[in-house]
């Protein structure tokens, strides 16, 4: 990972480190390709939101002990909220 610096799990930069790791995982694992959208418009270099949610959900399940004890690994709603934040925050590219 790009952010391999050891940070106190409850310190002031813990959330920043987790956020940066989520963005890094998305950049590394998302498959960017040409996709067809509504009314035959073709969008170049895009990815589906479902793919992004799958990647973030997998990351949150693997890292759940690092940041919360209440994350239910069967629920995807938190992963959806994180992907929406990434999308509207323009943190991907």
- CATH C-level class is Mainly Alpha
Helix content: 40-55%
Shape: elongated
Compute the CA-based radius of gyration. 15 Å
Please provide the count of β strands.
Answer: 2
**What does the largest sheet look like?**
2 strands, antiparallel
How many domains is the backbone divided into?
Answer: 1
- Run of helices and strands: HEEHHH
Unreliable runs? 1-5
Give average pLDDT, whole number. Answer: 77
Residue fraction in strands: 5-15%
Label the CATH architecture. Answer: Orthogonal Bundle
Can you list the strand order of the major beta sheet? 1-2
The CATH topology comes to: Arc Repressor Mutant, subunit A
Question: How many individual helices?
Answer: 4
Structural category? mainly alpha
Span between termini: 17 Å
Write the layout of secondary structure elements.
Blueprint: H1 14-29, E1 33-36, E2 42-46, H2 49-62, H3 64-67, H4 77-89
Antiparallel strand pairs: 1-2
Structural features, described:
The chain has 93 residues and is mainly alpha-helical. The chain has one domain: Arc Repressor Mutant, subunit A (Orthogonal Bundle), CATH 1.10.10. It has four helices and two strands, in the order αββααα. It has helices at 14-29, 49-62, 64-67, 77-89; strands at residues 33-36, 42-46. The chain has a two-stranded antiparallel sheet with strand order 1-2. A hairpin with a 5-residue loop joins β1 (33-36) and β2. α1 crosses α2 and α2 (49-62) packs across α4. The protein is elongated. The model is unreliable at 1-5 (pLDDT under 50).
């Amino acid at each position: 990972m790009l952010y391999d610096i050891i940070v106190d799990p409850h310190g002031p930069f813990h959330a920043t480190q987790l956020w940066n790791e989520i963005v890094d995982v998305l950049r590394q694992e998302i498959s960017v390709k040409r996709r067809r959208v509504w009314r035959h418009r073709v969008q170049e270099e895009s990815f589906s939101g479902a793919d992004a949610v799958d990647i973030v959900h997998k990351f949150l399940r693997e890292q759940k002990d690092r940041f919360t004890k209440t994350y239910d690994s069967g629920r995807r709603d938190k992963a959806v909220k994180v992907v929406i934040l990434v999308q509207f925050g323009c943190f991907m590219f």
